[in-house]
Design a protein that fits this description.
The chain contains 2 helices and 2 strands; from the N terminus they run H-E-E-H. It has 73 residues and is of the alpha+beta class. The chain has a domain of 51 residues. A hairpin with a 2-residue loop joins strand 1 and strand 2.
Length: 73
């Protein structure tokens, strides 16, 4: 098991990445929700790759995985 402060350190790191990414992105996102290390984000479909690259450029030790929405017929 990890140190008791691991959760607090992870939260501080994620808050820092989140704040920097949102402030420095070229547009204001209409929706950004985060729980621990998962996010739900609304981005125009033409900007998905650009924002994903921008987010991953915030901290070399943390990378965001992209899970695009599934089309339901």
């Amino acid at each position: 098991m990890g140190s008791p402060v691991s959760v607090d350190v992870a939260e501080i790191v994620m808050q820092n990445i989140e704040e920097r990414a949102l402030v420095t992105y070229k547009r204001t996102l209409p929706l950004w929700l985060r729980s621990v290390d998962d996010t739900f984000t609304a981005v125009h479909k033409d900007e998905i790759d650009d924002f994903h690259e921008h987010l991953n450029g915030q901290n070399a030790g943390v990378t965001a995985d992209l899970h695009p929405p599934v089309q339901i017929c």
